[in-house]
Design goal:
The complex is a heterodimer. Chain A is mainly β. Chain A is 0% helix and 58% strand. Chain A has no helices and eleven strands. In chain A, the strands form two sheets. In chain A, strands 2, 4, 5, 9, 10 and 11 form a six-stranded mixed β-sheet that branches. In chain A, strands 1-3-8-7-6 form a five-stranded antiparallel β-sheet, with no helix packed on it. Chain A is globular. The model of chain A has no long low-confidence stretch (mean pLDDT 93). Chain B is an all-beta fold. In chain B, the strands form two sheets. In chain B, strands 2, 4, 5, 6, 9, 10 and 11 form a seven-stranded mixed β-sheet that branches. A four-stranded antiparallel β-sheet of chain B has the order 1-3-8-7, with no helix packed on it. Classes of the chains: A mainly beta, B mainly beta.
Chain lengths: 111, 113
């Protein structure tokens, strides 16, 4: 079993819809959770960064962490064509400077 | 401009050749990382460095060599390139390891013929 599982998609949604992405993980030591957005032919850029369980909201983006279920989610409200990208989840444990990445989920927002 | 810069952006070379990918960051971050990204595998860590002159292996280090004589530079060398090393290579940096998130360059697209 891989440390981080992420359904690669692709996921196509109409403009204005809510996009829901998720990752599951197996390592209970993970405490830091990130979502990266990667446009075609660009590097991943940090979108959301959360510590431990709970919700974090930033504009149209909400990151949710449920440590009891080892499950994290990213929600994009009022999706725009500019949100079309690959979204990668990443996580790490305290004292470990490596990130464990999901394989990424491609999202296409159709105008 | 501040940030992390990778060069070259695109490279084509032949099997058996040595090739070096460059990475330069202007944030003075202590940690730097090299990843490769392949379809079906996602991002895989090749090597990382906690500070100048300190490097360590990641998940897929075979066939690669790194050095870090200065904090801002972290070159990755393929000593004898193989076709299986055709990939997109990303450099990243962070200030404080996993406590701070990593910031990525725009990658080098490497093709080995």
């Amino acid at each position: 079993q891989k440390e981080v599982e992420q359904d690669p998609g692709p996921l196509s949604v109409p403009e204005g819809a809510i996009v829901s992405l998720n990752c599951t993980y197996s390592n209970s030591a993970f405490q830091y959770f990130m979502w990266y957005r990667q446009y075609s032919r660009k590097g991943p850029e940090l979108l959301m960064y959360t510590y431990s369980s709970g919700n974090k909201e930033d504009g149209r983006f909400t990151a949710q962490v449920d440590k009891s279920s080892k499950y994290i989610s990213l929600f994009i409200r009022d999706s725009q064509p500019s949100d079309s990208a690959t979204y990668l989840c990443a996580m790490s444990a305290y004292g470990n400077n490596r990130l464990a990445f999901g394989k990424g989920n491609q999202v296409v927002v159709i105008p | 401009d501040a940030g992390i810069t990778q060069s070259p952006r695109y490279k084509i070379t032949e099997t058996g050749r040595q090739v070096t990918l460059m990475c330069h960051q202007t944030w003075s971050h202590s940690y730097m990382f090299w990843y490769r990204q392949d379809l079906g595998h996602g991002l895989r860590l090749i090597y990382y460095s906690a500070a100048a002159d300190i490097t360590d292996k990641g998940e897929v280090p075979d066939g690669y060599v790194v050095s870090r004589s200065k904090t801002e530079n972290f070159p990755l060398t393929l000593e004898s390139a193989t076709r299986s090393q055709t990939s997109v290579y990303f450099c990243a940096s962070s200030d404080g390891g996993n406590i701070q998130p990593q910031h990525f360059g725009d990658g080098t697209r490497l093709s080995i013929l």
